[in-house]
Design a protein that fits this description.
Shape: globular
Distance between the termini: 75 Å
Number of helices: 23
Structural class: mainly alpha
Number of strands: 4
Radius of gyration: 24 Å
Strand content: under 5%
Largest sheet: 4 strands, mixed
Strand order of the largest sheet: 1-2-4-3
Helix content: 55-70%
Length: 552
């Protein structure tokens, strides 16, 4: 009998995971008035909402996120408009998402120890942790996705209309945070259509699909009828992508190899224990096809993806392969090579585990309908990622719940047997993620404070060249749009970064820099320095310098 009742004695890892997350929040100190990555655009959307009472996404945004805007607006209304209050709204969703993930794992017949370990692994995953401290859509979408799938899964198992209604609300929240949320109603509908009792469950399933279908219809119509400038640019690029059928087909074959590698990177503790479990399988001398041929085929596929990416897409041999992997890009060549080998092994193991999940007689056919929902929603999420022209590492976080549960089911008793070691490894990963995140936020805060100190002294923002986030928050993108007008240019992104943005720096009187050594053709005067501690707690400085002359 499946049960998800919470017991203090049996769920120690559940409380350990939540307590560890809370302690890391105190360690990082989220009370920092600084933008993280692209969340400045989402913050400006909330600012417009609070000022006017109407929702309008900022023109830089591709994600249409009314739910997150109103959710963050609620926190800003209570706590006051600030980066801190909006960051708090994300942390609140992250907590709810972790709790829902634990109980989703229990719905999939993982025991309390196994569910607690995979919840801890999700919490410790570097990008999940980092973006929990921002107002980007990554973690809010992930949390809403998990909550919706958990509530649907439990509602279907119990045939509960109240839970189904709550699930449909959570699905709407996911859809109205990111367009990728359309995978949820698609998964629920497919589960219904494939059910042997489809005719008898029309009222039940349709009652759980009405609200998400309305939200999905609004999301699609809004993107077509009233798109932001970036959304129009994305639609134009998407049309070009679809026009080249060879590119579409090659991406359908290649992208899963990269997704598996990045999922291994996001869940390194489970790569280690999966390797040990696979070694035990070999010692038990099972079928040669399963032990040798299947892993070999999976390895050939994963390595083939790396080779194809290098020669066809001109990607490097070593990670990172897709955009936004700045941390990996800053590693040395040998460090990146080592990480690539580890993730190749992890991707091979994950591919092997997933094939076993669907190929054995005791797999899909014996899975209860409620538990199939996660697989179907993830399948549609995969389809979205295979046909969407943009492919970035942060987008792949939505696959983590499925992969962690699938790998957790495969590992089974191994997680129970090695629970202490796994807990230590996951906590160590959480500490590493926390130290890394704190260092990034401290450096970003120092740059932000440096630029703000000059602005508050009366200098106009257009005369200050600060961090990318500060520049955008204070109107550099608005200035660019004012220059080029409302037209769509295929090279607009390149034009902004290669022409307009460097020109803004050249015409700025004050610069925020990491070193006071100017280029040969410039003369600087040191105005201010802002100290901070980096990820290794070393004292660093950000400097405010003034140019000797301003280019006109």
């Amino acid at each position: 009998m499946n049960t998800t009742r919470l017991s203090l004695g049996q769920s120690a890892l559940f409380w350990i995971g939540l307590a560890a997350f809370a302690l890391t929040i105190l360690f990082i100190d989220p009370l920092r008035e600084v933008a993280v990555d692209d969340d400045w655009a989402y913050v400006l959307t909330v600012q417009h909402l609070l000022k006017t009472g109407s929702y309008r996404p900022y023109d830089w945004l591709a994600a249409n996120m009314p739910f997150q805007a109103y959710w963050g607006g609620l926190f800003a209304h209570v706590l006051g408009y600030s980066f801190t209050s909006l960051r708090t709204s994300t942390l609140a969703l992250a907590f709810l998402g972790l709790i829902a993930f634990y109980f989703l794992a229990r719905e999939h017949h993982l025991n309390a120890i196994q569910a607690g370990l995979i919840m801890l692994a999700l919490c410790a995953s570097p990008l999940v942790f980092l973006f929990s401290f921002s107002f980007n859509t990554d973690v809010p979408f992930l949390a809403c996705f998990i909550i919706a799938v958990f509530l649907y899964t439990r509602a279907i198992r119990l045939e509960s209309y109240p839970l189904l209604f709550l699930a449909s609300i959570a699905a709407c929240a996911a859809i109205l945070t990111r367009q990728f949320g359309l995978a949820i109603p698609a998964g629920v509908f497919s589960l219904w259509a494939l059910s042997k009792e489809a005719r008898g469950k029309v009222l039940f399933y349709s009652s759980g699909l009405i609200l998400p279908i309305v939200a999905a219809s609004w999301q699609l119509s809004s993107g077509i009828l009233t798109p932001t400038w970036v959304q129009r640019h994305v639609l134009h690029r998407q049309g070009i992508f679809f026009a080249n059928i060879e590119t579409v087909l090659s991406n359908i074959l290649w992208r899963p190899t990269v997704i598996l590698q990045y999922l291994a990177l996001f869940s390194l503790p489970f790569v280690l224990i999966a390797s040990l479990a696979f070694a035990l399988e070999i010692r038990q001398r099972r079928s040669i096809k399963v032990q040798v041929l299947l892993p070999a085929v999976c390895a050939i596929y994963i390595v083939g993806g790396v080779i194809y990416g290098h020669f066809a897409n001109h990607l490097p041999w070593f990670l990172p392969y897709i955009p936004w992997g700045d941390t990996l890009a800053h590693m040395s060549r040998w460090q990146r090579a080592g990480m690539t080998l580890i993730t190749l092994a992890g991707a091979t193991l994950y591919a092997y585990i997933l094939v076993l999940r669907y190929s054995t007689p005791h797999s899909w056919g014996r899975v209860p309908p409620s538990e199939r929902l996660l697989d179907l929603c993830t399948l549609f999420l995969l389809a979205e990622h295979l046909i969407y022209y943009t492919f970035g590492d942060r987008y792949l976080l939505g696959f983590l719940p499925f992969v962690l549960i699938a790998v957790g089911r495969y590992l089974g008793s191994c997680l129970n047997r090695w629970r202490i070691a796994m807990t230590i490894v996951c906590l160590a990963m959480l500490v590493i993620s926390a130290v890394w995140t704190r260092g990034l936020m401290a450096a970003a805060e120092a740059k932000w404070m440096a630029a703000e100190s000059i602005r508050l002294a009366g200098v106009e923002p257009r005369h200050i060249f600060g961090s990318r986030e500060w520049n955008h928050y204070h109107g550099v993108y608005d200035d660019y749009m004012a220059e080029i007008g409302d037209s769509i240019k295929l090279d607009s992104n390149e034009d902004f970064w290669l022409r307009f943005y460097p020109q803004r720096r050249e015409h700025s009187q004050f610069l925020i820099v990491a070193s006071v050594r100017p280029p040969l053709n410039e003369k600087w005067e040191l105005v201010r320095e802002v100290p901070y501690r980096d990820s290794l707690f070393r004292l660093q400085h950000t400097y405010v310098v003034k140019r000797g002359s301003i280019s006109q």
